[in-house]
């Protein structure tokens, strides 16, 4: 089925830029004037907001992007200016999908179908042996990554892993061991573990301890705050506020920071101190 994306703009060169990029991925483009927002989200997987063309002030932009996301569509912000000029909350609402040139447009156009899939967190993207130790590294379709200590289950005898196969539904990974034993890792077990370790939105997080833990992990990874800001799209002063315990990030933001550092969100939360 062909997917459809709305572009809020009246600038024809922006229309041509996006139409060319989306056509390559069999995505139809619907162009609507910025003032007709109510008709922009109906049945659309994503809505692209031409920020500068619509001449939106900060409040109008936040309202527009917020409405798109609250309506169930994936919001994308297109800007002519430096993308870093946008507020962090806009970048977060757009899941980091902010474009400011041909290269960005091409990249985001390719990502739209994937990012609009609301079930991607229920599928494995990649399962392998950790590059450090014999833990199993699992990556889900939404970019969440986690490490799993062995034995994975009662069938895991601790011998080396010979091969890993992900089933067609991508919900289960089967590991064949050198001994001939077979064990499994499932997406359901990952989510169950996340619930047990506090990976829910209603968890009470100690901001000061969390910030100290993130700083410790960032330094261990050899990253500066500036480099972490570049990798996540979060402004450096805001990263400094998190590390200082002056701001407690959402779990979504925490996942972005953890992924950029190279650790799982679960590892950050479990090791935040007690």
What does this protein look like?
The protein has 274 residues and is an alpha/beta fold. It has 3 domains: 3-115, Response regulator (Rossmann fold, 3-Layer(aba) Sandwich), CATH 3.40.50.2300; 120-192, NE0471 N-terminal domain-like, CATH 3.30.2020; 207-270, lambda repressor-like DNA-binding domains (434 Repressor (Amino-terminal Domain)). The chain is 39% helix and 20% strand. It is built from 11 helices and 11 strands. The chain has helices spanning 12-23, 51-54, 58-70, 88-93, 102-115, 187-196, 207-220, 225-232, 236-243, 251-261, 265-270; strands at 3-8, 27-32, 46-50, 74-78, 98-99, 124-129, 136-140, 145-148, 161-166, 172-177, 182-186. The strands form 3 sheets. The chain has a 5-stranded parallel β-sheet, sandwiched between helices. Strands 6-7-8 form a 3-stranded antiparallel β-sheet. Strand 6 (124-129) and strand 7 (136-140) form a beta hairpin. Helix 1 crosses helix 5. The longest helix has 14 residues, at 102-115. The protein starts with a strand and ends with a helix.
CATH level 4 superfamily of the largest domain: Response regulator
Architecture per CATH nomenclature, i.e. the level-2 architecture of the largest domain: 3-Layer(aba) Sandwich
Number of domains: 3
Order of helices and strands: EHEEHHEHEHEEEEEEHHHHHH
Report the end-to-end length measured between terminal Cα atoms. Answer: 50 Å
> In the CATH scheme, what's the topology name of the largest domain?
Rossmann fold
Q: Could you describe the largest sheet, including whether it forms a barrel?
A: 5 strands, parallel
What share of residues is helical? 25-40%
Low-confidence stretches: 196-204
Biggest sheet: strand arrangement: 2-1-3-4-5
- The helix/strand class is alpha/beta
The best one-word shape is globular
Task: Using the coordinates above, name the CATH class of the largest domain.
Answer: Alpha Beta
**Radius of gyration over alpha carbons?**
21 Å
What's the number of helices?
A: 11
Quantity of strands, as a count: 11
């Amino acid at each position: 089925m062909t997917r459809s994306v709305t572009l809020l703009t009246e600038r024809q060169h922006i229309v041509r830029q996006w139409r060319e990029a989306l056509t390559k991925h069999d995505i139809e483009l619907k162009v609507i004037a910025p003032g007709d927002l109510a008709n922009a989200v109906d049945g659309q997987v994503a809505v692209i907001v031409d920020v500068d063309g619509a001449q939106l002030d900060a409040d109008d932009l936040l309202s527009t992007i917020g409405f798109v996301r609250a309506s169930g569509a994936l919001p994308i912000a297109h800007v002519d200016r430096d993308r870093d000029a946008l507020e962090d909350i806009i970048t977060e609402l757009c899941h980091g999908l902010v474009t400011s040139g041909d290269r960005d447009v091409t990249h985001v156009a390719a990502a739209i179908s994937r990012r609009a899939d609301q079930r991607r967190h229920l599928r494995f993207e990649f399962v392998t042996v950790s590059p450090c130790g014999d833990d199993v590294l699992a990556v889900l379709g939404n970019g969440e990554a986690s490490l799993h200590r062995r034995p994975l289950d009662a069938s895991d005898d601790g011998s080396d892993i010979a091969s890993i196969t992900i089933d067609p539904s991508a919900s289960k990974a089967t590991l064949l061991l050198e001994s001939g034993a077979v064990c499994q890792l499932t997406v359901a077990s990952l989510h169950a573990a996340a619930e047990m370790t506090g990976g829910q939105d209603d968890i009470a997080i100690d901001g000061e301890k969390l910030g100290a833990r993130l700083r410790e992990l960032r330094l261990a990874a050899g990253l500066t705050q500036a480099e972490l800001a570049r990798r996540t799209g979060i402004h450096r002063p805001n990263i400094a506020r998190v590390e200082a315990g002056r701001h407690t990030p959402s779990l979504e933001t925490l996942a972005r920071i953890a992924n950029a550092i190279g650790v799982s969100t679960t590892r950050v939360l479990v090791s935040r101190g007690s």
